[in-house]
Specification:
about 130 residues; alpha+beta; GMP Synthetase, Chain A, domain 3; 3 strands; globular
Length: about 130
Amino acid sequence: MTEGGNPRARKRAVRALGELLPTVLSELGLTPASHGVRLLQVWDRALGSELAPHCRLEGVRHGTLVARVPDSAWMQRFQLEKPRILERLEELLGEPAAHDLRFRIGPPEPRATRTRGAPDRSEPSG
């Protein structure tokens, strides 16, 4: 069977592309985008399985990571964990992730966004 028809080979190729993406973006002069991709790749691991479901990375603004948490109780917990999270991010990235980490309260943005022009299924039709 050829490599193109082998599902295992395709999975390896996709994984390899994901590992190459930060390098390609950097070579194209898109270093901030590369940094963002790398942050997204390690974010859940840096938080750990207990915290990750309750915090969504929104982005980096002026060197500060901005993340969203569901309520004030979780915000307090994440504030206490902030030094450990930043340390773990630096460990996973091999460089400082940012100079600060800030949390905002609110419903998390969906991981997958709606396609432009697609109907919003939350609104009743008709």
